[in-house]
Design goal:
Blueprint (H helix, E strand, L loop, with lengths): L9 H4 L1 H11 L4 H5 L5 E4 L14 E16 L4 E9 L4 E7 H8 L7 E11 L2 E5 L2 E4 L5 H7 L6 E4 L8 H17 L11 H6 L5 H9 L4 H32 L12 H7 L7 H14 L6 E6 L5 H14 L3 E5 L3 H15 L17 E5 L5 H13 L2 E6 L13 E7 L6 H8 L7 E6 L4 H8 L4 E5 L9 E7 L4 H16 L3 E5 L12 H10 L15 H10 L7 E4 L5 H12 L5 E4 L12 E6 L7 H8 L9 E7 L6 H11 L3 H12 L25 H17 L7 H10 L2 H9 L1
Parallel strand pairs: 4-6, 9-14, 9-15, 10-12, 10-13, 11-12, 13-14, 16-21, 17-19, 17-20, 18-19, 20-21
Antiparallel strand pairs: 1-8, 2-3, 2-5, 3-4, 5-6, 5-7
Helix pairs in contact: 8-9, 9-24, 9-25, 10-12, 11-12, 16-23, 22-23
């Protein structure tokens, strides 16, 4: 018998509603609809606060009608109905015009309560909903009373909705689906959790959990339902990951154990400093992984300058010692060149093979490979890789190209991993005859990476010591719209830093020489189709480097040496600006995020980030890592017009509140969610998790991992668990299956 949860929604709710649910909420089957859980519940008699309603958002409120009046306009030719609803904290006006005013007047009378849905606007300084959808909750007319009795004595589910379909219409569709399944006794509905697990942990059967979460009578019903449904999500996902781990452990990676007196030993002996305790600990974890016969898959997280490169270099030298090659992938040419320069300087004569003048008997060639290299140098680098002459290669996306062949690739190191997609990392790993070991490095992991570490699918090493010689960075939010004088003070601080012998960065989201109207048709269409949200910003385009540089050079920073740097400049021009900034010949550098990584100017102590709310948490953390790199303390000012208490402003407050990159990632994860842990979305709407939250439900996730590992170890093909296998097939479509395999 087929599973009725797989039935298309059109069979249950009709073609028209099914199309809206599919097009706007991505719900296609009965199962999709029943797993579209309420985001919160209104209690009968509960007063939802109206005082905090955001303008230009679509909302659903539960409130009581305080008064209702018909008024005329247009010299008596038109009529409008104004209905004021209240919840004790504030009021909201509902407005209906013309025929609608007459049609609704007899129902919307003082004393009655209802759910009202629409887009909040402001007219004459009063918040209002024009022609809102509504459903009354205390009707006493016969047929309507029967229809609304379902709301009596229980909690009212409020669903994630959209402009095209309201919360209560989704609720009506859910009721229809639940009734159809109840009528057949839920026959054929699979139970993904093994019975023994369910009984041992006191979890409700799936039909009961779905009934309780959509039709709760008490808050205890909701809690019990959520407990069960969290386990569904955690367990099925952990089974997918456990099967992947089992497959990975069966892959034949080459163990890479460094020799007793080889290249690594020679390198350690010539170091002019002692490794920190953290570096020694993390190196030990990595070398233990490299010695295994299955591929390492490890995240190395540490602040900018905390010694990640040294740890990665020692891992690469260990692999070369063991007869393999190592590749480091960097997101920009600037960073690739910097890594190549610092690695060759640290290695000295060990960065040349014995066949080269001045080379060491233990040495290995270290080559650079980027897109802008000349043909002769590029040809030589490719030859050194395929013959094995070069043990270490450092490069950009150019490493991924088909022409690049390795003699024996044993380790892939990815720097600033949030700048690369899984596809790009996988393309480089595919260049090895057997799966190579993988080490990814970052200062601030993206939410999906944090999620994968919580799920136990990514081993993590953390360097959490402040690097020697680095100064702390003070970060402050500058609310330019609320307090314009704070922005004036920000420019004064920049001038003070320069007068004290230091330099400053000013960062903008845009260059400013884009063609006006380029792509405007698509942009307008996208804006038209998108619902407004708290982070949407239609005030103006993002601030631009060229505009801001001109304004401050002629205004607040007049008399200082101001230059610009952005990605569309010619390479020679960029190099010239950076050379002069590094040499102290430029006071203020106005730039895009081209300076995010790979720029090291210890004398730069201040950074002003304009429209800071337009950047992600990870970017902001990386950007401010450009200051405070010397003995003088750093200052980072986050300029924003985002209103207080909005998600955008809260992100900025979080960045200002901590210098801990991993803590910031967890905050980012709580705000944006973890993305599709099994898919390519890195955060937000495409998450396969609906009730499970990574940061709050770690205990469930860890317990589910143990249970899933036990099930997969005993029954790798899940032959004794057909319902679990079906749930897994539903979770893993073809794209997710491929993505999971690539890791």
């Amino acid at each position: 018998m087929s599973n009725p949860m797989d039935d298309p929604l059109r069979k249950i709710v009709g073609d028209r509603t099914a199309k809206v649910l599919a097009d706007h909420l991505g719900l296609h089957t009965a199962g999709d609809l029943l797993h579209h859980y309420p985001r919160r519940y209104a209690e009968r008699g509960e007063l939802t606060r109206l005082a905090d309603l955001p303008v230009d958002e679509y909302v659903t409120v539960v409130a009581q009608i305080a008064k209702a009046d018909k008024r005329t306009y247009g010299r008596g030719s038109g009529v409008r109905l104004e209905v004021v609803v209240t919840d004790g904290s504030g009021s909201l006006t509902l407005v209906f015009f013309s025929k609608a005013a007459h049609a609704h007047a007899h129902r919307l009378i003082p004393g009655r309560r209802g759910m009202f849905s629409g887009k909040v606007s402001v007219f004459n300084r009063t918040r209002q909903l024009a022609h809102p959808d509504y459903q009354l909750l205390d009707a006493d007319e016969g047929a309507e009373k029967d229809a609304l009795d379902a709301f009596a004595n229980r909690l009212i589910p409020l669903y994630p909705a959209c402009k095209q379909i309201t919360s209560w219409r989704i609720g009506q569709a859910v009721d229809t689906a639940l009734n159809s399944l109840t009528a057949i006794g839920w026959e054929g509905v699979g139970e993904p959790l093994p019975a023994a697990l369910r009984e041992a942990r006191g979890l409700a059967p799936l039909p009961e959990a779905l009934e309780r979460i959509h039709r709760p009578r008490t808050k205890a019903d909701i809690a019990a339902a959520r407990d069960r449904l969290k386990w569904d999500e955690a367990f099925v996902l952990q089974v997918a990951l456990a099967r992947r781990r089992a497959a990975d452990s069966a892959l034949p990676a080459v163990p890479r154990r460094p020799g007793q007196d080889g290249l690594l030993t020679a390198f350690d002996a010539k170091l002019p400093f002692t490794l920190t305790d953290g570096q020694r600990r993390v190196s030990g974890e990595i070398f233990e992984d490299l010695a295994a016969e299955h591929p390492m898959h490890r995240l190395l997280q540490g602040e900018v300058g905390s010694g990640k490169t040294m740890v990665a270099l020692r891992a690469m030298l260990g692999v070369v010692d063991a007869g393999g090659q190592a590749a480091m992938l960097a997101p920009t040419e600037v960073l690739a060149q910097q890594h190549h320069r610092s690695v060759t300087e640290m290695m000295g004569e060990l960065a040349e093979s014995s066949g080269m003048l001045g080379g060491s008997d233990l040495g290995t060639k270290v080559v650079l490979l980027t897109g802008s290299m000349g043909t002769p140098a590029r040809r030589q680098a490719l030859l050194d890789l395929v013959t094995g002459e070069a043990g270490i290669v450092i490069g950009t996306h150019a490493l991924i190209e088909d022409k690049v062949k390795f003699h024996d690739l044993g380790l892939v190191v990815v720097d600033e991993q949030h700048r690369f997609g899984v596809e790009q990392r996988d393309a480089l790993r595919a260049k090895a005859a057997q799966p190579p070991h993988l080490l990814v490095m970052t200062a601030t992991p993206i939410p999906r990476t944090v999620a994968m570490t919580v799920f136990g699918d990514l081993e993590t090493s953390v360097l959490d010591q402040l690097p020697a010689g680095r100064s702390p960075i003070a970060t402050h939010v500058v609310p330019a719209a609320e307090k314009p004088h704070f922005l004036s003070r920000a420019w004064e601080r920049v001038r003070e830093e320069v007068e004290g012998g230091h330099q400053a960065y000013v960062v903008c989201p845009r260059i400013g020489d884009e063609e006006e109207g380029k792509g405007s048709g698509k942009a307008k269409a996208a804006k038209k189709d998108k619902e407004p949200g708290p982070d949407d910003d239609e005030r103006r385009p993002p601030l631009a480097v060229l505009d801001v540089a001109e304004q401050i050079a002629q205004g607040a920073l007049r008399g200082l040496r101001v230059e610009v740097l952005h990605g569309r400049m010619q390479p020679d021009a960029k190099d010239d600006v950076m050379r002069r900034f590094t040499a102290g010949e430029v006071d203020v550098l106005v730039a895009t995020t081209v300076i995010e990584v790979g720029v090291n100017v210890p004398n730069a102590t201040a950074m002003v980030i304009m429209d800071a709310d337009r950047f992600g948490v990870s970017q902001l953390h990386q950007l401010r890592g450009r200051v405070g790199r010397g003995s003088a303390p750093g200052l980072c000012l986050l300029v924003s017009e985002a209103p207080e208490a909005t998600p955008a402003r809260m992100r900025l407050d979080a960045v200002a509140g901590t210098l801990d990159g991993f803590e910031l990632s967890e905050i980012d994860l709580q705000q944006r969610r973890e993305g599709d842990v099994l898919g390519q979305a890195q955060s937000g709407s495409r998450s396969s998790l609906r009730v499970l939250t990574v940061m709050d439900d770690r205990d469930v996730i860890e317990a589910a991992r143990e249970e899933a590992t036990a099930v997969v170890t005993a029954d790798p093909e899940l032959t004794a668990h057909p319902d679990l296998r079906s749930a897994l097939d539903s979770l893993l479509d073809a794209d997710r299956e491929e993505y999971l395999e690539k890791g």
